[in-house]
Amino acid sequence: MKGSHVILSLVCLVLGFIISFSFHITQLKMNNEKPNLSDTQYEKTLSLRNQLIAQEEINLKLQKELKKKQEMVQENERELAKQAQIYSNIAEDTEKLRMFLGKVKVKGKGIKITLSDGAYDPNEENINNYLVHEHHVFKVINELYISGAAAVAINGQRLTSQSYIVCNGPVITVDGVQHPAPFVITAIGDQEVLESAINLTGGVKDQLVNDNLIFTMEKENEIILPPVLGS
């Protein structure tokens, strides 16, 4: 920047000299007078004028190059901003995948649903008609995931995309681990959305109650689900 100021000062100085000289020559011509300059002085003045013109051409060229480079810098900045956004999206998607796969601990608001066996009815011949079975648990879990639950657990055991649930009489087995009733299903997500989805008329809650099960649901301000251990 300092060099540019020096060049600009020199240009202004020479330009002022040439304008003054030209004005002086014009005045002499108007008065039919000849300039009182020696040949050496005239040649020096002409040389300075030519140098000024050449310097102006160089400055114009440099200005064009500067503008072009500035445009290149702006384009690179825009490209870097796009790449940063792409990487940010990839990182966000990766974190979501880790969460759905159960690889990271999850904490947040959500709901807690408890499924309990129905009250014993001596008039009911088939005891299975008031027991909680895996298909009851599946209904709740599927509805929670459809409604946007970020993570779900049964009796504190985290579920993943590869989890399986099997019913063995009064107990269910989740990924090889047995759990007796009552079955507490916790889900992290938008409380209002999850609750509304479960409470839809004719939905999951009504179906479970119609199967003689005891159903309760509560909002939880903090649910912590640990990561799934092992492979």
UniProtKB/TrEMBL annotation:
Quote the InterPro entries the UniProt record gives: DUF881
Family designation:
Belongs to the UPF0749 family.
- Does the keyword Transmembrane belong to this entry? yes
Q: What is this protein called?
A: DUF881 domain-containing protein
Q: Which residues form a coiled coil?
A: 52-86
List the transmembrane segments: 6-25
Keywords per UniProt: Coiled coil, Membrane, Transmembrane, Transmembrane helix
